Amino acid sequence: MSSENSADDARYVWDVVVVGAGPAGASAAYAAAVAGRSVLLLEKAELPRYKTCGGGIIGPSRDSLPPGFELPLRDRVHAVTFSLDGKFTRTRRSRQMLFGLINRPEFDQQLVEHAQKAGAELRTGVTVARVEQHGPEVPDRRTVAVVLQGGETVLTRAVVGADGSASRIGAHVGVKLDQVDLGLEAEIPVPATVAEDWAGRVLIDWGPLPGSYGWVFPKGDTLTVGVISARGEGAATKRYLEDFIARLGLAGFEPSISSGHLTRCRSDDSPLSRGRVLVCGDAAGLLEPWTREGISFALRSGRLAGEWAVRIAEAHDAVDARRQALNYAFAIKAGLGVEMSVGRRMLQIFERRPGMFHAAITGFRPAWNAFAKITRGSTTLGELVRTHPMAGRVLSAMDR
Question: Within a 10 A sphere around the Cβ of 331, how many other Cβ atoms?
Fold first, then answer.
């Protein structure tokens, strides 16, 4: 379907335009398309494309996938080795799978294909310059103009911004952030003997910088090795990664990819919409503040954004559109927002007392069981604190 002017100057108006084809955008496009609406999914890169990400698929991510989606797992994790800046190493094991590991190019591509099968149309290699909700490009108050680089304008009844942590749609909405972290990662091909040693096991290292940690995620013949810390500590974070790789005995292997990215968490009062425009995933700053886990937040917020975008597309006036946008914000805050608030509290404690965290998770069975339940998806941080008074008391005690 074309957005070009016809002879009578009438232009096609999409029900929903989604900007960004990562997990959040693909989930939004799928949800809106399944509802029977016309959906256009815009992506600036060509797919598949690399994304800096550990690629851990925890229970909430698995449970948010479209029906019939088969995870392209590279490994199944049954053991976690914990260390405190390389010391006091201990491995905890589980008979049940804790979580799975994927490569993001494959995973994201598969999500997009599900959205397309549901009826969404995909355009790659296009960059959105801006969104206009008023002005000469907008024919009526029910329409939003998505202006592409090069000047082409796409008209729609609702927009979902899922264009990553440096989101242009997020800037249009006015997303506010209260936490920005720097993640550095290396994809390291290793010999079969090294790969066998890591199969089914990940490493989490509580790092030397406040709130930092490192990880090793095995994916067949490649290890994904990364670290994350607060932005502003770039040189120290790079040093941590170099020391981490050397300590693991991996310094002799040449990374196939070395990359970095910023993760951003929204502030409590940050908007999630403006007019007929919603934001989700990284574009909205939706991320678990302690672990910086973002895939499950992207999938869950993307699905909600797609469902509420359909309602906004159906709204006949600004008042109704506003009501639907507020309902979307309420749905986000009631679920993901609660998890984020608990995660912030966890991060504040972890920044001050990483040794206590390490001792608890490696030596206190209830703490390990809680970790396992969260990764499997049988509970969340928020549910754990709400339904287990002891967990809340432990957090309060650690916070003193």
Answer: 18
Angle at 31 between CA 149 and CA 173, to 5 degrees: 45
Q: What angle do CA 183, 187, 192 make, to 5 degrees?
A: 145
| Distance of alpha carbon 76 from alpha carbon 12, whole angstroms | 46
Q: Residue type at 292?
A: R
Q: How far is Cα 212 from Cα 398, in angstroms, rounded to an integer?
A: 18
* Burial class (CB within 10 angstroms; exposed 0-12, middle 13-18, buried 19+) of 113: middle
Which residue has 């911004």 as its token pair? 161
The token pair at 252 is 């002799």
| Residues 256/189, Cβ–Cβ less than 8 Å | yes
How confident is the chain (400 residues) per 10-residue block, as mean pLDDT?
Answer: 38 96 98 98 94 92 95 97 97 96 96 98 97 86 94 96 95 97 97 97 98 97 97 95 97 96 95 98 97 96 98 96 97 95 93 94 92 90 71 58
Report whether 129 contacts 153 (CB < 8 A): no
DSSP 8-state code for residue 44: S
The pair of structure tokens assigned to 125 is: 């290699």
Please indicate, yes or no, whether the overall pTM of this predicted structure exceeds 0.85: yes
Query: What is the C-alpha to C-alpha distance for residues 194 and 224, in angstroms, rounded to an integer?
Result: 13
Residue matched to tokens 């797609």: 306
48 preceded by cis ω (within 30°)? Answer: yes
What is the side-by-side order of every strand in the sheet holding 87-93?
87-93, 79-84, 201-206, 213-219, 222-230, 177-189, 257-266
52: nearest Cα among 182, 208, 232: 182
Closest listed residue to residue 153, CA positions, set 21, 42, 33: 42
Q: CA-CA distance, 294 to 181, in Å (whole number)?
A: 13
3-state secondary structure of 80: strand
Q: How far apart are CA 57 and CA 279, in angstroms?
A: 22
- Residue 1 · residue 123 · CB < 8 Å: no
* Amino acid in position 32: A
CB atoms within 10 A of CB 303: 21
